[in-house]
Amino acid sequence: MQLYDTELRSRLMLGTARYPSPAILIEAIKVSGAEVVTVSVRRESSGERAGQAFWSLIRELGLRVLPNTAGCYSVKEAVTTAQMAREIFGTAWIKLEVIGDEHTLQPDVFGLLEAARILSADGFQVFPYTTEDLVVAGKLLDAGCRVLMPWGAPIGSGRGLNNVLGLRTLRSHFPEVPLIIDAGIGVPSHAAQAMELGFDAVLANTAVAQAGDPVRMAAAFAKAVAAGHDALMADPIQPRDFAVPSTPVIGKAFLA
Amino acid sequence: MKILVNGDLRDVVVPTLAAALDELGYRGKVIATALNGEFISSSLRSSAVLSEGDRVEVLAPMQGG
Question: Measuring CA to CA, which residue among A56, A15, A26 is closest to residue A215?
Fold first, then answer.
């Protein structure tokens, strides 16, 4: 899988928030096999050390980081946050979030598009957190995005793929564009379903971090993502409306 | 001179953003800054002159999804 100019083997990306401890976070990342982890930026006073310590831990893993603009509700906020994240993390990658509704955390796709244009023109490699809307997706690609991150369901909801038909249509409409399901994944079967639908990767955070055993769940997600992708590559059968006997009927004894 | 740093009122005696960050104890930390809502890259901090009431944002790495 290639995201911008980076070749990746793992199709599971992991968020780094809401884990019970830094040690569990690091173990979960290692077990997941993820090569990309998402990070963020927040205010820090001169006396605080948490952010610096967190960054030291992540840097030691030697993985790619994908900074986000979580919590931004305006284009200006998102663009400035992206600029600050680029300096902090030393990467042109940005998971662009412009939120439009505080209850569903649904993307403001109008602001998202405007911010994507500004950041792409400024040399960023933008990963926009968007909906499954086809027209918005096309405009994001026109704006310079080379990867799209459609939601499965609202962030942290764990509901899986809310609009399978819409996501399937998005996939078939843009067969060459890397599409990563971001948000709403609750259990590994959701991730496997996304991969079976042909999505390129899945980003999970809350589903792993808030599980009773995040490390075991990270391992489960890794297996599910790999299984879903293998299933897609194996060309699965299509559903039918009627039964088809799996055991051959030729040669069956006449015993009636 | 009184400025707002991450929303808190702070007193600094130096004229530039770079000097103020040193004075406030940020030296050596991985941070990014904004002045009155505009991003100021690390290379421009020493030429960013502060004024009374300026709003400085200092951001650091954090966990994210």
Answer: A26
Q: Which residues of B touch A46 (CB under 8 A)?
A: 24-26, 29, 58
Interface confidence (ipTM) of the complex: 0.95
pLDDT digits (tens, 9 = 90+) for A181-207: 999 999 999 999 999 999 999 999 999
| Strand-strand pairing, B8-11 and A93-96 | unpaired
Distance between A217 CA and the closest CA of chain B, angstroms: 16
Q: What is the pTM of this model?
A: 0.93
SS (H, E, C) chain B: CEEEECCEEEECCCCEHHHHHHHHCCCCCCCEEEECCEEECHHHHHHCECCCCCEEEEEEEEECC
> What are the distances in angstroms from CA A62 to CA A41, A131, A149, B2?
19, 31, 23, 41
Q: Contact A217/A211 with Cβ under 8 angstroms? A: yes
Let me know: does A88 contact B32? Beta carbons within 8 Å.
yes
